[in-house]
Amino acid sequence: MNSAQSIIALPVFNCRIQVLIFGDLLRQQVIGNVLGQAFTFRKGELHFPLSGNSEFSELVFAFQPPLPFFNLNRQAARPRERVNLLNNCTGLTITGVMYHTHDRMILMRLADDKYFLILQLYGINGNVLLFDAEHHLIDSFRKVKNSPQIAWEDFRLERKTELNWTTFLESCQVQAGLSLSQFLNQGEMGVYSKTFIAECTYHLNCSERTPIATLDLFSRRKLFDLLQNLFAASRNPQYFIYTGQPPRLTFLPLVSLGSIVPLTLGDYSTAVGTFVSQYRHWYTTERKKSEMLRKIEWQRFTLTRKIQKQQKELKNIGTAERYRQWGDLIMANLSLLKRGLSSVTLPSLAMDKSEPITISMNPRLSPVENAEKFYERARRITQSRNQLEKSISTNQVRLQQLGQLQEQVIHSSDQEALEQSAKILLNKASTGKDTKGEHLPYFHFQSDGWDILVGKSARDNDILTLQLARPADYWFHAQNITGSHVLVRNPHKAGLPHAIIVKAAAIAAYYSKARNSKLVPVIYTQKKYVSKPRQSAPGAVAVKFEKVIFVEPWNPNNQENSD
Predict the structure, then answer these.
(1) How far apart are CA 26 and CA 118, in angstroms?
(2) 37, 218 Cβ separation under 8 angstroms
(3) Eight-class DSSP state of 396
(4) 123, 156, 189 — which closes off a domain?
(5) CA separation (Å) from 150 to 106, 155, 206, 532?
(6) Please, are residues 513 and 483 in contact by the beta-carbon 8 Å criterion?
(7) Do the strands 442-447 and 520-526 form a parallel or antiparallel pair, or are they unpaired?
(8) b/e for 65-79, b at 16 or more Cβ within 10 A?
(9) Can you point out the beta strands (E) in 269-382?
(10) Same domain, yes or no, for 133 and 169?
């Protein structure tokens, strides 16, 4: 493939290249505009109203999961309730925009350097900081304990738009021990997204773990051309939105996606607004699917156990034929029998059997009453067998229907179709029991879109970890302390954010015998590294490759809704 035709992906809201594109947009649109009163009305989201000669009405920074973003909106938000922030900025004119040479930060100069706004565009860890003319921190959107160390000399009016081939080769030599993904994220222009790295691996026909040292000169040149084209395209980008799982935003087409046709837009603000809307719709749908699959999974589990129990009962219930035969023998030999017999031996009625049959009888009952008793027992057995067989058949059909519903939910991307599927779920788990009163083995909490399940007892811990958990899920437990197993669902098989690790560990500490301690060690690993030793006690497991984190116990019932 000709390097001039190489196609590169734009990372989504967590990449230095996009930060530079956003910086270009700010320089073109906001210099000379006046900042209005900054405010927030949604967690992790900051709005700056703009007035002046720009076509845009506000500057928006959203640092909350699942999708951090920054944008210029043509129509300003007008919430009924809002919290005013960064009051010192109000009424100040934006007099300049500067780029950081190697970090994802942009500096906005206010009122001819009377104040400086530093935009730390670090995804969900981002922040907006306000400094005075002497570079003292005086306010911030997200509160910080200590003033960050800012290398002010690294801010520039212009940004680099191309690489030097000789310098690139020297970097490859110096960092030869790094993998491709490590090299890209520690290079001169990092950070790059997973989407871009995946596109590079497609072009180079390698994996992201491939050491730079193993790339020949031709491959290094191809990688250099990809990066060079990326920088060149960032000066005048187009925007491409790919619908998928999840949707993706790029500023050049993705070769690795083959014939998929993206939505093409030329305006940054429109592209980001459209993409955020699509992504939030996808995320809402995925959360609904996850919740439905959790309920279906539990129903299938309980139904399977019920069928197994019924089949065992059916096997042990015996047959009615023996009792019916005893009744027939007694009635056929009434003239030979009298009240008070505790047992009787009578010849078989079967033509092919000559051995006599001994029958235990109740001496307090007459022979007729004993016969009726045996007939009644035969009827009850027959009735029980019929009921069990019918119930097993019904439950097996229901189990098959649940499997079909599960497949429908997994492959559905239609919100309305999911709503229709939800109506099929008759058992709505709400307080640890469904509408039929069946016990759930866990408490369910949510944090920033992640499902956290907590075992209710030692036996429930076994069910949660060994039967309901998936290999990629993350497992937590207080170290060397009796307590609940805690599971964090990981449907996309990705790494957990540090904040979720801390939250889940704090919950595991609370649901242990160390809940009153100030600091508790908690181990965590993926479920695939957790196993059950033979003949071990309920709740006891063996763990490999665990990590340890020290946390303060936290009761999730105080701040979050639980199932």
Answers:
(1) 13
(2) no
(3) H
(4) 156
(5) 12, 10, 38, 50
(6) yes
(7) unpaired
(8) bbbbbbbbbeebeee
(9) 343-347, 356-360
(10) no
Q: Which of 362, 391, 406 is the last residue of a domain?
A: 406
Same domain, yes or no: 43 and 121: yes
Helix (H) / strand (E) containing 421: helix 415-422
Q: Which residues pair with 45 in a beta bridge?
A: 42, 62
108/98 Cα distance (integer angstroms): 7
Residue 117's nearest CA partner among 144, 101, 98 is 98
- Give the start-end residues of each E strand in 5-152: 34-35, 38-42, 45-51, 58-62, 69-73, 83-85, 94-100, 105-110, 115-120, 127-132, 137-140
CB 260 within 8 A of CB 232: no
Q: Do 520 and 553 touch, CB atoms closer than 8 A?
A: yes
The 10s digit of each residue's pLDDT in 138-168 is: 999 999 988 888 999 999 998 876 778 998 8
Assessment of whether the complete model's pTM goes beyond 0.70: no
Segment 123-129 long-range contacts (CB within 8 Å, at least 24 positions apart)? 123/13, 123/14, 123/63, 123/68, 124/44, 124/63, 124/64, 124/65, 124/68, 124/497, 124/499, 125/63, 126/61, 126/63, 126/68, 127/63, 128/46, 128/61, 128/86
Tokens at 307, concatenated: 């069928």
**150 and 168 within one domain:** no
- Any alpha helices (H) in 440-496, and if so which ranges? 458-463
- Band of residue 539 on the pLDDT scale cut at 50, 70, 90: very high
Structure tokens at 474: 């993350």
Residue 426 domain-assigned (yes or no): no
Mean pLDDT of all residues in 442-470: 90
| 454/519 same-domain check | yes
**What pLDDT sits at residue 535?**
87
Kindly state whether residues 225 and 355 are assigned to the same domain. Answer: no
Number of structural domains the chain divides into: 4
Range of the domain at 242: 161-269
For residues 52 and 177, state if they share a domain: no
Q: Are 474 and 387 in a shared domain?
A: no
275: in domain: no
Structure tokens at 562: 């639980």
Cα torsion angle, 513, 516, 517, 523, sign: positive
Question: Quick one: pLDDT at residue 36?
Answer: 95
Let me know if residue 316 belongs to a domain. Answer: yes
Closest residue by Cα to residue 136 from 83, 70, 88: 88
Inter-axis angle of helices 194-204 and 217-233, to 10 degrees?
140
Strand (E) positions, 266-351? 343-347
CATH code for the domain in which residue 52 is found: 2.30.310.10
Per-residue pLDDT reduced to its tens digit, 54-83: 889 999 999 988 888 899 999 999 998 999
Asked if the model's pLDDT at residue 433 lies above 60, the reply is: no
Q: What distance in Å separates the CA atoms of residue 114 and residue 132, rounded to the nearest whole number?
A: 6
| Whether residue 145 sits in one domain with residue 184 | no
Q: Mean per-residue pLDDT for 276-303?
A: 87
User: Is residue 152 classed as helix, strand or coil in its secondary structure?
Assistant: helix
Both tokens of 133, joined, read 């003319």
Average pLDDT rounded to a whole number, residues 497-526: 95
Q: Is residue 292 included in any domain, yes or no?
A: no
- pLDDT score of 385: 86
Pick the closest to residue 128 from 113, 114, 112, 144 (CA basis).
144
Q: Which two tokens stand for residue 336?
A: 């030979």
Residue 13 reports pLDDT greater than 60: no
| DSSP code for 348 | -
